[in-house]
Predict the 3D structure of the following.
Amino acid sequence: MARKNPNIVITGTPGVGKTTHAEELARNLGLKHLSVNQVVKDEGFHEGKDEETGSWIVDEDKLLDYLEATDLNSNGGYILDWHACDLFPERWIDLVIVLRCDSTILYDRLSSRGYKGKKLDENMDSEIMQVLLDEARESYKEEIVVELRSDRAEDMEGNVERVEQWAEAWKKDNAG
Ligand code: DAT
C-alpha cells in the first residue's frame, strides 16, 4: 500500500452531523471532503428519486467508476461523507467513523430540515436500530470502525481532536 494520506469514511443517519464533521476535519487535516451525495447529484449518478422517501436511487456502478478515476486509492487524503458505507472497497479505507445521535435531538434536526411522514420515520428507525453501525461493522474490519456521539458541540470538538490524533499516528505508521 503506497498511499501517503489516509482515507476516512464518515457515515451515519441523515442529520447526525456528517457534513459538519467532514468539513471541520478536512479543514484541520488538509484532506479533501468528498460529499458522495453531492457527486451523485452533480454527476447525475442516479435514476431519479424514490417517490416515497425522496432519496436518490443511486447508480452505484457509475459512482464507483467515478471514484476509481480519482487519486483516492493512489494518493489518498479523502473524507468520504455518505449515509451508506458498504459500497467502498475495503482497500481504499483506513478509518470508518459512524456518527450517532440521541433520537430526541435527531428528531428536532430532521424536522427542522423539513423531513416528515415516512421519510422522517424511516430515518428515526434507522438511527434507533443502529443500521449504519451494523453496516459498517459488516463491511470493514472491527478495528477500523469507530462509533462517535454527535449530540452537542462539545462532542464534535472531542471527536475532531480524536481523529486528528489518529491521523497523526497513521502518518507516522505509514511514513517512508
Ligand atoms: P448530516 O451531514 O449527517 O446530514 P449535518 O452535518 O448536516 O448532518 O448536521 C445536521 C444539523 O445538525 C446541522 O444543523 C448541524 C447540526 N449538528 C450536527 N452535529 C452536531 C453536534 N455534534 N452538535 C451540535 N449540532 C450539530
